[in-house]
Design brief:
Length: about 550
């Protein structure tokens, strides 16, 4: 398996070779017509980009040659000199040297000695004649040019839409593969079973290979935030030091695309509302400059994006009181909530800690939209805060959204898939393990009272109809056990009563077609090996429905 350094080297090589080809082409254009402004501008841009990339990779000498060439083309653009005389031959020689340096990187050979070239470029920049300037190639050069091969990069650029289409086709293949494997087992044919197992291995490798191609470094997104933080801090008259880490962590490009706005919102609010102004920080015994870090890291099969500030933290009691004032819950219910449950209120639609609406609003505004974006990916949002010390938001995201682990459950002889991300525990409960409180059936799970609701009631609920009140009469008979899947969302647990558990299975989720896509209780559909369509339950939507319809 390639190391990350090797991958970066190959990417640098692919881009640098493209630069080299473009430089040679534009130099020829400029030689034919020294007034060709477009060619001159492109040469300046290419040298600037190569300089930056080479220095970032540690290729110092290559970066120096590109830097001095950039300076010369800048002088030509500024009409301080013209593209004539010794300058023409020297620039061609410099581009050839850069080409040799780039090829040396690719073949792990010793880099080209460019000291003499650098000295001559310095003389040209000062307006002096270079030493032994060559306008015609020598015989250690004509032979080398004759033997030179035209080179093509080993890497190609592929539009994301093509990868999306390829992944969809692989998904169709995986669905049919599972059907063939099921059929082979039912028929009991050893030859067909062997072929089906071979198909299973190949399609598995193909699926993960396509998913791997779609992975990009988190730095593609994280590296855009220094400017964002600078602009927000300037508008708020604050001083903020930003630290980025984990740019190498790999994640599906589509996951990054879908989470961009959510991360932007959290970062802007961390600077605007989380970090205090310099005077308040100093009064609290803190440095005037606030600290903000955005980091990416891996945790098992997930990628974590963390936004951490050393600001004022979340005032838990203020959130509790504001929720009561906004009639989200009673004072008694609010007083019974623990710290994590109070913070979960920040994600409720319409909740805001801001006293007035501004372009950059207070922490809490829009967090319901952030939560919905994360839910759509099958992710989670964690909050940790200490008053006066700071707040950390952690976005828990899947590496890829192509394949999801799921638990298959059965209800009324129909299978449903529940994403493993939201499954907590499966239980088989006796009647003495269930009790009725306030119109709800409850059970005790890890020292916590968890409400129980038949999945059938949630799926078949109509209009504004509330859930029916539960009493002791609704408890199962002593010899009947209830099969319960405990799911969790936004810090809340809910026990879904089902007919039975089937199995755990990786599934390829397809979007529901119109008009079924308007039913928010389902996150999509998949096809089982038996050929049966299986709806994928949307746990966040089911939890929100239960909270809205509870008796």
């Amino acid at each position: 398996m390639k190391s990350r350094e090797q991958e970066y080297r190959e990417l640098f090589m692919a881009e640098a070779l493209e630069y080299y080809d473009a430089m040679s082409r534009h130099l020829s254009e400029l030689e034919r017509n020294p007034q060709e402004v477009n060619a001159l501008n492109e040469l300046f841009r290419l040298m600037h980009n190569l300089k930056a990339n080479a220095r970032a990779m540690g290729f110092v000498e290559m970066g120096e040659v590109a830097h001095k060439m950039e300076t010369l083309f800048g002088q030509i653009r500024g009409q301080e000199r013209s593209f004539t005389g010794a300058l023409v031959g020297m620039t061609f020689q410099a581009v050839d040297t850069l080409g040799g340096m780039i090829r040396a990187v690719g073949s792990d050979q010793q880099t080209v000695d460019a000291q003499a070239l650098l000295d001559n470029l310095d003389l040209l920049i000062k307006g002096e004649e270079p030493v032994q300037a060559q306008t015609e190639p020598t015989d250690e050069q004509a032979d080398a040019d004759a033997a030179r091969k035209l080179e093509l990069s080993d890497l190609v650029s592929i539009p994301v839409k093509k990868l999306d289409n390829l992944l969809n086709l692989v998904g169709e293949l995986v669905i049919d593969r599972d059907r063939i494997l099921t059929l082979a087992t039912e028929l009991g044919s050893p030859a067909l079973q062997a072929t089906a197992r071979h198909l299973f291995r190949i399609s598995d490798d193909l699926q993960y290979s396509v998913m791997d191609v779609r992975l990009v470094g988190a730095g593609v997104l994280l590296n855009k935030f220094p400017r964002v933080v600078r602009d927000v801090a300037s508008a708020e008259s604050k001083q903020v030091e930003l630290t980025l880490s984990g740019q190498d962590v790999q994640i599906d490009r589509n996951v990054l695309q879908l989470i961009t706005d959510a991360l932007l919102h959290i970062v802007r609010n961390a600077v605007s509302h989380g970090i205090e102004n310099p005077a308040d920080r100093q009064a609290a015994g803190k440095p005037a400059v606030g600290r903000l870090s955005i980091s990416a890291l891996t945790e098992r099969d997930d990628v974590l994006l963390q936004v951490q500030d050393d600001g004022r933290g979340i005032n838990t009691e203020a959130v509790r009181k504001k929720a009561v004032r906004q009639n989200m819950l009673s004072a008694e219910a609010a007083a019974a909530l623990d710290e994590q449950a109070v913070w979960a209120l920040l994600f409720e639609p319409g909740f805001s800690m801001a006293e007035q609406i501004t372009d950059i609003s207070g922490r809490g505004v829009g967090l319901d939209v952030v939560k919905l974006a994360i839910d759509s990916l099958g992710g989670r949002l964690r909050v940790n805060s200490e008053l006066g010390k700071g707040t950390t938001f952690t976005l828990v995201l899947p590496t890829s959204i192509a394949v999801k682990g799921s638990l298959l459950v059965e209800l009324d002889e129909r299978a449903y898939a529940v994403p493993l991300l939201h499954t907590d525990v499966v239980l088989s409960l006796r009647s003495d393990e269930i009790f009725a409180v306030g119109g709800l059936l409850m059970t005790r799970v890890q020292d916590e009272n968890v409400p129980l609701v038949p999945l059938r009631q949630l799926l078949y609920l109509e209009g504004d109809e509330p859930l029916p009140r539960a009493t002791r009469a609704d408890l199962p008979a002593a010899d009947v056990q209830q099969q319960v899947l405990v799911v969790s969302y936004n810090g809340r647990r809910l026990g879904l009563v089902v007919d039975r558990f089937l199995r755990q299975q990786n599934i390829v989720v397809k979007q529901l077609s119109k008009p079924l896509d308007t039913i928010d209780l389902f996150g999509g559909v998949t096809l089982l090996g038996s050929g049966q369509l299986c709806l994928v339950l949307d746990v966040p939507a089911l939890t929100r429905l239960f909270l809205a319809k509870r008796p």
